[in-house]
Design goal:
heterodimer; A: 11 strands; B: mainly beta; 46% strand
């Protein structure tokens, strides 16, 4: 049973460019959340997708957008990159609709460096 | 979402039991308590989750007092490989969460 996978593992971009990160959720999961983790800090919630819709959003500008596909995989897009966008981007998946709390399982992350 | 407070860092030695306490005074009735472990440049890994009293699995125990305003993650007989950052999160069903807030976590260093 594959866990959460993310691609690419590393990425280098320059200021002003656009980037797309990809995530495949754990088998059986239908909800995907994205987090940004700067060096030395805890992950910060960006947004969550369920049924191909953005369900919740953290305190991030509109430059950050996403998409969820019918197979539950997801993309995170960041436009007009800033130096401050350099971080580890984490994807987490969970299963909705259950009676228990939706434990999130994280992928290995994509390390983005903006020069 | 309930704010959590954890010690910034802790040191221990191999073979010892480590207890990390998290304070969450504003926990809501339907909130669960979840702990994650994170190694450098990796995603957080789920350790344990509970609602009240005590929960135990193959890697840790979670103690939650009756008022649920705090919780303690207990790691028995730690090894060098347990050196990591540990996060305590409090929240309910994700649909009702506006945010999934990780604090700075507790950096545990296990020494030989």
């Amino acid at each position: 049973d594959a866990g959460v996978t993310q691609s690419p593992t590393h990425l280098i971009k320059t200021r002003g460019q656009q980037v797309t990160l990809r995530c495949s959720p754990k088998s059986g999961h239908d909800t995907v959340s994205w987090y940004q983790q700067a060096l030395g800090q805890g992950p910060q919630f960006i947004f969550q997708y369920y049924e191909e819709e953005e369900r919740q959003r953290g305190n991030f500008p509109d430059r950050f957008s996403g998409h969820q596909f019918p197979n539950y995989s997801s993309e995170l897009n960041v436009n007009a990159l800033l130096l401050g966008d350099s971080a580890l981007y984490l994807c987490a998946s969970s299963r909705s609709g259950g009676a228990d709390y939706e434990t999130q399982y994280f992928g290995p992350g994509t390390r983005l460096l903006v020069l | 979402l309930a704010k959590t407070t954890q010690p910034i860092s802790m040191d221990s030695y191999e073979g010892q039991e480590v207890n990390i306490t998290c304070s969450h005074n504003n926990i809501a009735t339907n909130d669960y308590i979840t702990w994650y472990q994170q190694f450098p440049s990796q995603g957080p890994r789920f350790i344990i989750q509970g609602y009240k009293t005590k929960v135990t699995n193959e890697v840790a125990s979670l103690f939650i007092p009756a008022d649920r305003k705090s919780s303690t993650l207990s790691l028995p007989r730690v090894s060098l490989s347990d050196t990591a950052v540990y996060y305590c999160l409090v929240g309910g069903v994700s649909y009702n969460n506006n945010d999934m807030r990780f604090g700075a976590g507790t950096r545990l260093t296990v020494k030989p």
